[in-house]
Amino acid sequence: MPKHRLIAFHPAGTPDSDYGRIRTNGMWYQEWQGGYHDILKRGYPRPKHKTTILAELHSPITPDFLHGGAVDVPFLVSSRVKQIIRQEKLTGIRFSRVEIAKVATKGKRHRQQTRGEPEDQILKAKDQASAVAPPSLHAVYVTGRFDIVPEFPSGRCPDSYVTPYDLPTSGTMPDLWCPTIQGRTFAAWFYCSQRFRDVITKHAFSNIEFESFEEQMARFRGDLRRYEQEKN
Questions:
Q1: Structurally, how many domains does the chain consist of?
Q2: pLDDT in tens, 83-132
Q3: Of 42, 50, 184, 200, which one has the greatest count of Cβ atoms within 10 A?
Q4: Do 166 and 133 belong together in one domain?
Q5: How far apart are alpha carbons 195 and 34 in whole angstroms?
Q6: At which of 141, 163, 181 does a domain end?
Q7: Of 106, 141, 176, which one is at a domain's C-terminal end?
Q8: SS3 for 188?
Q9: What are phi and psi of 112, to 5 degrees?
């Protein structure tokens, strides 16, 4: 593998069980997702702006980063994170409003659910939003784009999986970005710059870890090899 002069990372939440991920990150949706319309069907008023995120939380006490969205909106952040991102003038980021449609618990210690579907911890709980102070959260839209070097120019492997790819040897990388192939965005992951990682790490924000681009892509290539071996 060529030695890259550019460095990138894949941000993700801290490892946890499926139940733990729901308790930590909640569930939240964009206007085009089914969960958004399920919330509206339960009587929540439709937001004025289509970019508004509707969130259902397990607890009013949330970490600095909440993960689980689509690639273009990979996480929600606390007001503290938003302030630092703007203060540091990190690029490739646009913020949007988040409305808390439901809070499942008051945030007190209780027996953790380990049966049923993980989502039931929120969906089957009584809404406590009127009894607690909901957190102030902000949606992060990834506006940065950066051309990568794909193994398959179409963006897909012959078996229709996302193509593995490498970083170019030069270029101006936004601080938060989605990969493109000759300017065309394709179905892949999102990444951040070394600068983004350094700023977030410096302030010790909670519920975020960083995997290097090389490690993440090596793991993906390994998954593809195992799939090919199992298929044959």
A1: 2
A2: 999 999 999 999 999 999 999 988 765 555 556 687 888 888 888 888 88
A3: 200
A4: no
A5: 35
A6: 141
A7: 141
A8: coil
A9: -80, 135
